Amino acid sequence: MSAPADTPPDLPMDWPHRAASRSIAAVHQHWHVQDMGPKDDSAPTLLLIHGAGGSVHSWAGLAPILAQHYRVIALDVAGHGFSQKGRMARAGLEDIAADILALATGQGWQVRAVIGHSAGAAIALRLAELMPLRAVIGLNAALSQFEGMAGWLFPAMAKTLSLLPFAPQFGAKMLGTPAQIDRLLAQTGAQIGAAARAQYLTLARRPAHIGATLDMMAAWDLRPLLARLPQISVPVLLLTGARDGAVPPRVSTEAARTMPNATAHILQGYGHLLPEEAAEVIAPVILNFLTRALVKPA
Fold first, then answer.
1. Contacts by 256-261, CB closer than 8 A, 24 or more apart
2. pTM of the model
3. What is the C-alpha separation between 47 and 276, in angstroms, rounded?
């Protein structure tokens, strides 16, 4: 099956679910979107949002399973992956959520639930404040500020690097090797296959992707959202891996305690990349949660 004519021109021929890809020019950028499942009103729409440094490839295993029951729309956000960001850098939580809201509204998507991975979980929760969602699912949810010295050092470093004209090219050159990708993935505690590792290598070799990741890190500020978590009443499910080396599992359990309708589950034996290393394990849990959360009241 060939991809639509409006597929991003630089999208690799072997990119996961390329046939479902298209590019949408709207809201400050050209968005790379993958759209699967029913396109009519026969099933609710789910929106999938990756984390910093990720792309729609994160959902390669999970999206087709969910698309058997729902319309599934995945995005490359804020210039990541194969989206092309405009000249104005809109990389913070508030801007990303506002742009996704504008995109969904403009496209007529009736989104009923959002699934976010890592930083994407924070975006999902912000969208729950802006859209009439009925469920939010966070996978390895990054719902805490950097701790200690990293709280000011990491964002400051990212901001400085994002201002340097050749930082994305330099970053792509430094990170875009199999050895570096293996090292970075090992730090997440995740165990993923060769194809997924190759996809991260492809992304790391793209200066625009590296630049978008730096911009996002530099602009990221969760403090306002974290202060409002007690007011988020939508049903929330947080799943995390016990071996997560990027976001401690306690972050999810502590965040769930602050929200009135949230639960957290820790899955033994998995790391920070749950959608990629455990799609078939988490899919039944997600589907069961969505069945209960999206059922229409009598």
1. 258/229, 258/230, 259/229, 259/230, 259/232, 259/233, 260/230, 260/232, 260/233, 261/233, 261/234, 261/235, 261/236
2. 0.91
3. 17
In the numeric block, which tokens belong to residue 204? Answer: 């790391």
Which string of b and e fits 12-24 if b means at least 16 CB within 10 Å? Answer: eeebbbbebbbbb
- Pick left, alpha or beta for residue 15 (phi over 0 → left; psi -120 to 50 → alpha; otherwise beta): beta
Q: Of 28, 24, 31, whose CA–CA distance to 86 is shortest? A: 28
Domain range summary for the chain, segments of one domain joined by +: 18-146+220-294
Question: What CATH fold (topology level) applies to the domain 18-146+220-294?
Answer: Rossmann fold (3.40.50)
Q: Is the pLDDT of residue 171 over 90?
A: no
Structure tokens at 98: 């506002």
Whether the pLDDT of residue 168 is over 70: the answer is no
CA 1 to chain CA centroid, nearest Å? 26
How do residues 257-288 score in pLDDT, each as one tens digit? 999 999 999 999 999 999 999 999 999 999 99
More confident residue, 156 or 171: 171
**Contact between 68 and 93 (Cβ < 8 Å):** no
Tokens for 284? Answer: 């039944």
Query: What is the per-residue pLDDT across 130-139, written as a single tens digit (0 to 9) for each?
Result: 999 999 999 9
